[in-house]
Design brief:
2 copies of one chain form a homodimer. The first copy, chain A, is α+β, with helices and mostly antiparallel strands. Chain A folds into 2 domains: 19-146 and 279-301, 3-Layer(aba) Sandwich (PSTPO5379-like); 149-270, PSTPO5379-like domain (PSTPO5379-like fold, 2-Layer Sandwich). Helices cover 21% and strands 24% of the residues of chain A. Chain A is built from 9 helices and 12 strands. Chain A has helices at 9-13, 24-32, 60-69, 98-101, 147-155, 161-164, 201-208, 224-228, 269-277, and strands spanning 47-56, 76-80, 89-91, 114-118, 121-127, 138-144, 170-177, 188-196, 220-221, 261-266, 283-287, 293-298. In chain A, strands 1, 2, 3, 4, 5, 6, 11 and 12 form an 8-stranded antiparallel β-sheet that branches. A 4-stranded antiparallel β-sheet of chain A has the order 7-8-10-9. The longest helix of chain A is centred in the first third of the chain and has 10 residues, at 60-69. The first copy, chain A, is globular and about 55 Å long. The A-B interface holds A 61, 64-65, 68-69, 71-72, 176-177, 179-182, 205, 209, 212, 216-220, 228, 266, 305-306 and B 61, 64-65, 68-69, 71-72, 176-177, 179-182, 205, 209, 212, 216-220, 228, 266, 305-306. Chains A, B: InterPro entries: D-Glu_cyclase, Putative_hydro-lyase. Chains A, B: GO terms for molecular function: D-glutamate cyclase activity. Chains A, B: This is DUF1445-domain-containing protein.
Amino acid sequence: MATTTATHLAEATVPLQATSLTTGLAVRQAARNGTHHSPTFGLAPSYLQANLIVLPSRYASDFRILCARNPVPCPLIAESKSLGCWDAVKSWIDGVSDDGISRELDIRRDAPRYTVYKDSKLAKFECADIVEEWTEDHIAFFIGCSYSFESALCDAGLPPRHALLNCNVAMYRTNVPLCPAGVFTGGTYIVSMRPYKKKDIETVRDITRPYIATHGEPIAWGWDAVEKLGIKNIAEPDWGAAPLTMDGRSLSEVFGDDENVPVFWGCGVTPQEAVMRAGIEGTIMGHAPGHMLVLDCRDWDIVKQQ
Amino acid sequence: MATTTATHLAEATVPLQATSLTTGLAVRQAARNGTHHSPTFGLAPSYLQANLIVLPSRYASDFRILCARNPVPCPLIAESKSLGCWDAVKSWIDGVSDDGISRELDIRRDAPRYTVYKDSKLAKFECADIVEEWTEDHIAFFIGCSYSFESALCDAGLPPRHALLNCNVAMYRTNVPLCPAGVFTGGTYIVSMRPYKKKDIETVRDITRPYIATHGEPIAWGWDAVEKLGIKNIAEPDWGAAPLTMDGRSLSEVFGDDENVPVFWGCGVTPQEAVMRAGIEGTIMGHAPGHMLVLDCRDWDIVKQQ
């Protein structure tokens, strides 16, 4: 893992081969024609990136209610315009039209990589498309992604640690229960974690608060939050890279330190886990972790001052 | 406390003196002119009843975000049409107009009883109105109330136990954290509890699920949920009446019984507690517990099939 102290975020995080992918459409087209198949972090800055979940129609109603009841970890941005539709979506964001979310879309090919589950068991991992699995009975859902507020943190001079270190954000299972919805019971919040200096946490809260469609402000912060959330070892995330100090030490080595305070946000992995835990039948599809669907709408389209 | 086994809900629960109060407007007018000052349970059947919270304007934005992030315990129905406005509201419910929520309104007098807090300390309890305390800087918020789905449960032949026993529903503090929002940190879910037979729980979930603006389906159920939610003693609720079996025994005497399984819903006391815990300054007002503001819109206006 990189232990660079690079502070120029763009240099540190944008894959060199992909600097021409500066819009959502460009990323989708490159994924569709097979010229781009790596993670999307740093691509098409300011274009909204989405978590993708595709479900058989009989679970759609319960899934919408799951999202409505748990909007912090499961912010629903859009869904297939109609049953089986893979080339147009209906917007769930006030003030953003259906076409404003994304046009010229092929949900089955436009993420760089996909995951396929059959009867709640992994069937394909990091496959190129889901053309074969998609049926007329499937509905796709787009869920907000915290990449959106990360640009705002960078602009404010508070880039997330994992971006500076050019690695994936650390994600953890917690014991905080989701509000159940129909078949989706027993789920818990998944969180992403970005360490910040104690003195910066209120600013970080303020910056991310308006991004209510992409997880918004943190759900917990501070060293005591680790235990409260039921996280056993901060040094061993369930997904993503182990979190480090800027000089490359494990975060567990600086426990209690005011310079490296863990700050936790709701995470878009939550609905995928909830769907898997529900043990539902049929073919479920999603993007492969990190390989998001990049949309046409921009980060600022979903910012909401209440 | 009543230990009646009356099964005719209307007889058991409608205060005799108030049978003429059959619409939201009638209840509001009776509260306004001082002829009705008791709890509102059973009044104006099918008219939506709301929890009321009135805040100084500087906390309004954070409070809206608190509700948006925690829609199950804090479903925001409407708010003052403009700063300081007490006679008209702006609807937060899709498909219900501002006037559809309530017309001919005086938020300062239309609940039968009020509570006033100054600098987070109780200043007045069960006072008749808040005309003196209301200022041009106040904003009122209406939060959904579970009385709405109780009618639906009665219609389905599954009346809540507390209605059959003609007492208030049992409410408990839990250890389930709210998603924080601005000044509102450290809050936890408050839940209401209605015991049901194990075999009826899935039906009860189905019936209450569409009431997403009034807490929706339960957040937890089963005897093991008591400990999971951090409830120390099911027989001693933090608000409302101690829950009983139909033959008048304490619920703690039948622990593990399939005939009296505790079922927990998000509760509209949650935002009041969250506001109090935030230790904010100035004059905060609300309805007195049980003395709700009765609106013009009907239960079915807020039912949503997703």
